[in-house]
Amino acid sequence: MRPSLLRTASQHLRRRRDYSSSAAQPERKVAILGAAGGIGQPLALLMKLNPLVSSLSLYDIAGTPGVAADVSHINTPALVKGFMGDDQLAEALQGADVVIIPAGVPRKPGMTRDDLFKINAGIVKGLCTAIAKHCPNALVNMISNPVNSTVPIAAEVFKKAGTFDEKKLFGVTTLDVVRAKTFYAGKANVPVTGVNVPVVGGHAGITILPLFSQATPASNALSHEDLKALTKRTQDGGTEVVEAKAGKGSATLSMAYAGAVFGDACLKGLNGVPDIVECSFVQSTVTELPFFASKVRLGKNGVEEVIGLGELSAFEKEGLESLKGELMSSIEKGIKFAQES
Ligand code: NAD
Ligand code: LMR
Description:
alpha/beta; Rossmann fold; L-2-Hydroxyisocaproate Dehydrogenase, Chain A, domain 2; 2 domains
């Protein structure tokens, strides 16, 4: 065969291969609400780099045209569109498979996550009302704080609208896992890439309960005091960043990474990739609390299985009992707000 014909044949084959691989992968739309913010912008960047995303919808009350124009120049397949203000929210959400919500105010030094409730509860309620209307089947990844209350608010809004599906609502607690992995690897002196640590409970202070007794690879090098210190550092990780930023907000870059990891896991689950397990704050019967973070298996419809806690150390059992009061009152606060407002 002439070299030019050989070249044509191999180009044809490559095109066919490209076509068949893209035909096998479903089109997926991801919407980010709060996309012009400290988390929203780097999260938009990371989702634009995700090959599972075919359409990326960037919504905020201000600033999205610029963010969308910027991110859209990156030569990856996801088609990027920016949407700004209430009038454009419906179009931003239409057809979304996954909606990621980092909209709302962040903490300043001296504040608790619950101090954000006053402003963020209303923002989340409004956005979830629109989700119920325009993309009721989407998986919702809630980042806005206080997660222990904003997830119950979202659930109530969806229940009122008649669209609630407990398999599709997630509080994003991945940053707690990311921190626990990093801190454990540093202390146990093991390569961080192979580390796994489940983190259960909720996403605020003592409600964040890392299960270092289940960390892999296991380490004999850590004393009880080390484990207590690792637990405290994981629980206070958000505050560590808030104080270091000294009034300029809370974790944005590590959160965008964590949000992208969790968003990717949701997309893989939707696409039928087996054995996708991440920790998340979901409707749960693992404890007596109606919402609880634990390992969750993700599948084609969202949550496929909420995985139990496994064996806990005496220290972790104690931590579990002492977080329940605070977590329950944050959950109840969210439910009450959504029912009464
Ligand atoms: P930010 O102020 O930098 O950005 C928030 C964005 O939300 C802004 O661009 C703002 O315009 C937008 N926004 C406000 N109201 C909106 C509405 N009604 N619709 C759409 N967008 C709206 O804040 P940030 O640092 O990105 O943090 C956002 C939220 O994420 C905070 O509540 C913060 O506490 C939370 N957070 C959660 C985690 C977690 O682990 N789950 C980690 C870090 C931060
Ligand atoms: C975090 O854990 O970094 C976030 O919840 C932000 C915060 O206020 O700490």
